[in-house]
Task: inverse folding
């Protein structure tokens, strides 16, 4: 699932599309993450573009990865 999210967040979006529905699609992907996906994300997030990181930050909240952090 990480690869899907990575590709999606790297895509080209209009601002309207991202804030209207794009972020919710990314959020649904995050909800499907398993432990390996979270590890991949944590190991590579600082290597991503600023735009990618901002998109990720917008669609994640503090409880989305509670299972991984336990």
Result:
């Amino acid at each position: 699932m990480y690869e899907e999210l990575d590709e999606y967040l790297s895509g080209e979006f209009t601002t309207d599309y991202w804030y209207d529905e794009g972020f919710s699609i990314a959020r649904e992907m995050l909800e499907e993450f398993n432990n390996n996906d979270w590890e991949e994300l944590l190991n590579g997030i600082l290597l991503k573009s600023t735009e990618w990181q901002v998109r990720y930050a917008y669609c994640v909240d503090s409880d989305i990865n509670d299972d991984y952090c336990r």
In short: The mean pLDDT is 87. The CA atoms of residues 21 and 27 lie 10 Å apart. The longest helix spans residues 15-31. The chain is about 70% helix and 0% strand.
